[in-house]
């Protein structure tokens, strides 16, 4: 039962509570009419004992219908209107990397590629353009995924009619049942798979493989990398690939899931029509044994600590992971089982809060986290991830283990338990309120995941009901018992990653893990409960001077005498959720050269530094059991706070935002912790071409403007809490404020809350004209590429070509047309570099047009590849740009871009946030309220001649900036030429 979302396939990922995001409103495009053939459809089977719930007493989610075809294929279908018109299809095959023989390593993933290459109803390379003509974008709407245990094909079909749904099911059946798998297709696709391996490989791949080998030692998971090896991929041939497909691609191993805006009877009928005649060839092959963790010998003096490993990676920050491992076993997904998971979760939340509290107050570690995981039906375990502050890994490990030991020695307090239960309850309540907003694609993915982990799904109301009825079970002793069980196991393994050779040894790590620790009770929660009623007022509540309609939908504008203005849109389309955004200041224009370190620290430290009487601990305490947030971001022309909340918490959420302006607090500890985090991460950017691009590309594209340079460790070392305050205090005090509130809230109460918070702020100082006039430069043209170097694998490189464009509201129509041009460019790059040359797995092209500033825009193409292919990238990009400028694109090529864009707009326009995003800044420039009106036409009515003119104007070879990121050579630095 999906009560608490669990990550799918990474031992080290943190456990997360799922939140839903779909927000329907009024779509810009009409939805397709159905053919009204319902009366001719066969009825759905009775749902007395659905296959997913076999052996479970979890109440069935009655919106799902289940069935099994005579050939053994299982299916599930569900009607869903989020987003309107879309139908999400998933075909899961119970065959992943662990179903491969050694000589077949990577075949499951290779077949995933080959299925899209050519099949019964699709010619070579026709799958992607065929779905583009139906409005499905490549990558986001048309995709597939291979894991250790399964391969899943995914189609999100927009604007689905009975005919397009029928066609899609036909095409998918041909792909899965009868892919061509020819020798020529294999030889074409193998280089693309190797390009993907290269792009995703290097340091990150070595780390993943090391963790698997250690944590799953002696099990198939340890040596079954999903991507395979270069030798096995190059060694793949038609006979061997067909043998794998024949062995595992059978109806008995398949599940088809459909959720979306169509009659469930039609969905079920189409599954029967296109998959009902599928027959497996030969005898059924039993699934492989995934094994169990092997305990160390009983006579080992350090037992139960098994293997421990130290991995030296000069470009990675220090990280220590240890796991208490248990064998995975089949479970009955019952209510009692899920109650046990809830108790496990509360125990984890308490210990994680204690670990975080200690880290904030000053510890030998930057962060630490406990996470229960089930990995690929092979290993179950409790994993502890620690980021030491420096080379004193043993002190950090001892401190974390001591805090955990205290949790295992004594039951937690009732207050600690109540705090975590309140956090869980608000999430479950929100899921119930937003039940109607669950996106069909997310529902389909959740069911596929349930199949993968052999569990069930449940409606949000059922989950919440089980939780509420289980509350008496959450006693201190029960939580304590589950905490102890989390750390029970016959196998304990550890991995320490360090950039420094000889800093640790495997024997030292084993001994540290086996050493006894003294429980440390100092991290137990001690903060006193605090309420908003105890906080000082922002000021005297002030009536707005004006409330007026904007002329767009039901959005209103509210103005106060102090200069604060707000946009309000109460709507019932988003039950249980209210979004609040606060825009202020001048964004990057307000940041000066030499302040880049303080800009980087703000994301972690500005909010955490507190306000009024509230430090970070108090901020967490006061929002406990509430739906509140506090995110911060810097944009080109504005700063922004944002949060998702709900009607009952809206007034207090606005108080938190307003108090940041009225009574900011400047605690030093969050700044110092942010400095430590930034310093530990800096060197990691050198580990791959992608890391160097993440670090340097924006800086280089913007003419080496120091504001956009990533702060070096030396710059971070010089940053101080006092300097942080000196920069941010005047920024918080200057310039107009715009507040957006939209979603399910009471309008009158929302205005009253504004009166008492933002309306009560003192008048704000203006932003200096010289700040507002600061421009964003573009890089100077370079006929020869600028070079940067990375310290990763020698077969990895990246190339970038970037043409400067512009920015600002006046050119918004042109910016949308440039998006179309960029997508055509991207399709051509994909065809040239991936499909034909096999040189790059995922070349990208994107247009950026800052709306809040009049400059700084770009069209950027980039790809990762082998170093010797970099010249081909630049030659290809230059040739495409010249061709786009020389002649108009063809009608069919344009349609492959326009139709997916049309459908993206249609789906996006069902969200309230879509329109509110368009009108951000409208209180300062009313022209923004007109932005939605021309959007559809700008994207879908653009002509080949207009695109050609844009290419001639912007894509000139002598205006382009070129960058290459190469493996570090002898005598080169990792930063520059």
TrEMBL record:
MF terms in GO: metal ion binding; metallopeptidase activity
Official protein name in the record: Insulinase family protein
Lineage of source species: Bacteria, Pseudomonadati, Pseudomonadota, Alphaproteobacteria, Sphingomonadales
Superkingdom classification of source: Bacteria
Domain Peptidase M16 N-terminal, residue spans: 85-197
InterPro entries, alphabetized: Metalloenz_LuxS/M16, Pept_M16_N, Peptidase_M16, Peptidase_M16_C
Coiled-coil ranges from the UniProt annotation: none
Keyword presence, Protease: yes
Family label: Belongs to the peptidase M16 family.
GO annotation (BP), single: proteolysis
Cleavable signal peptide: 1-30
Keywords: Hydrolase, Metalloprotease, Protease, Signal, Zinc
SUPFAM superfamilies cross-referenced by the UniProt entry: LuxS/MPP-like metallohydrolase
Span of domain Peptidase M16 C-terminal: 240-421, 737-898
Keyword Zinc attributed: yes
Pfam family of the protein (one): Peptidase_M16
